Amino acid sequence: MDIQTTWDKLKTDMKAAAAELGIDKIGIASVEPFTELKQRLLRHRELGYESGFEEPDLNKRTEPALLFDNPQSIIAIAIAYPSKLQDPPKSEPGARRGILARSAWGEDYHTVLRDRLARLEAWLIERVPSCRVLSMVDTGALSDRAVAQRAGIGWSGSNCAIITPEWGSWVYLGEMITNLPLPPDKPVTESCGECTACIDACPTDALVAPGQLNSQRCISFVTQTKGVVTDELMRKIGNRLYGCDTCQVVCPENKGKNWTHQPELQPDNEKAKPLLVPLLTIGNRAFKDIYGSTSSAWRGRKPIQRNAIIALGNFKDASAIPALTGVLREDPRFELRATAAWSLGRIGGDTALAALEQALASERDAVVQEALHTALSSLNAAESR
Ligand code: B12
Ligand code: SF4
Ligand code: SF4
């Protein structure tokens, strides 16, 4: 067998072994620098569209040779995840619930993909003992989507997601740079065509053009921040506690697609759609016990608690007033007190008004004082109308 045939055969065998390794799709990308992506990332930065969660070094992001000695190919993988809850609990008056994005259902996908990449590495080393690899998922320097696109995993959708012809966009992505000269795959030829459903459905117009996201306006990003959110964005967060799936839910390529075969990724309804009020007072330890194994915990409990407060305001459910008043009086974190003031103002009514006035008498933090004044003036204006 000539050398080329050897690597072709290894690639074919590896793809045939994918399912047994727990991997849903494998593609091979070349290690050429991602030159166009670099220009794109530069422009993205200039426009202020970055989230701040990306690797800041654009050379490292786009040149595999800076990350690995003498790279020869990149193996990209995709793992499909569920998009539907079975018999989800209802969100009802007096028992309102929030929702975690699908990417936070089940066990943390970083753990699951690292496990699959480790299995693939063992499989490769068994066949090629001199094989070297560098694996990454999400937190690595490379753009997982750009690698997946080049490797033929899927196309880059107008909602920014990699959309696979087989699994839709409900896939997590990971990759390994290797010293094996595996022949590259071709990018897929499908595209979004004339569709604009995701751009039309985005609640904040964060998709400023097809495939171009202003992260600062993306609800997924906002739910992962720790500070006080603007009135406009709080209203648009709805009851999302972590992440946002709207631009994928509306995508026709995802219609009817719900993947239940990856055991670790299956959701627990009570975690995916939790009651809001208990989240307001959850302690650090309990939070870690419940959410520590999911991908929603990486920023700690504060963003999720803040989002739970926002959700209660958006539901305008008066039964949440005592719990929100408790936050306003007792929570040591000013961001949560300011958000509780907003929520009480949004719910309105005499009890909420009294709680806001009482808090103003003792509040010492300037940000919370301002939130209290804003909430009170909007309530007073509503009353005099
Ligand atoms: C930072 C980040 C975010 C930020 C910014 C997202 C963004 N769109 O840039 C925030 C917090 C908002 C976010 C949200 C989400 N994220 Co995120 N995120 C990342 C991270 C760490 C880096 C992304 C990045 O560099 N963005 C900068 C943009 C400019 O580059 P890019 O998207 O990587 O590359 C594409 C563009 O440059 C484009 N492009 C290049 N040239 C050109 C030219 C033209 C003309 C056009 C139109 C496009 C184009 O094509 C590239 C490939 O698609 C990656 C992991 C990683 N290391 O790559 C995960 C990742 C992209 N996230 C992921 C997920 C699942 C999500 C959410 C769905 C989570 C949720 N449910 O809330 C949302 C989706 C939001 C959205 N519509 O994109 C997955 C995506 C899986 C998939 N099927 O695509 C990734 C790959 C993590 C993983 N390993 O699975 N995320
Ligand atoms: S994740 Fe939500 S906010 Fe972000 S682009 Fe998609 S629909 Fe818009
Ligand atoms: S909703 Fe339409 S435009 Fe958006 S990603 Fe899906 S197919 Fe593409």
From TrEMBL:
Signal peptide: none
Gene Ontology MF: a single term: metal ion binding
Keyword tRNA processing in record: yes
UniProt keyword terms in alphabetical order: 4Fe-4S, Cytoplasm, Iron, Iron-sulfur, Metal-binding, Oxidoreductase, Queuosine biosynthesis, tRNA processing
GO process terms (BP): tRNA queuosine(34) biosynthetic process
Matching Pfam families: Fer4_16, HEAT_2, QueG_DUF1730
Protein name per its UniProtKB record: Epoxyqueuosine reductase
Organism: Paenibacillus baekrokdamisoli
Encoding gene, per UniProt annotation: queG
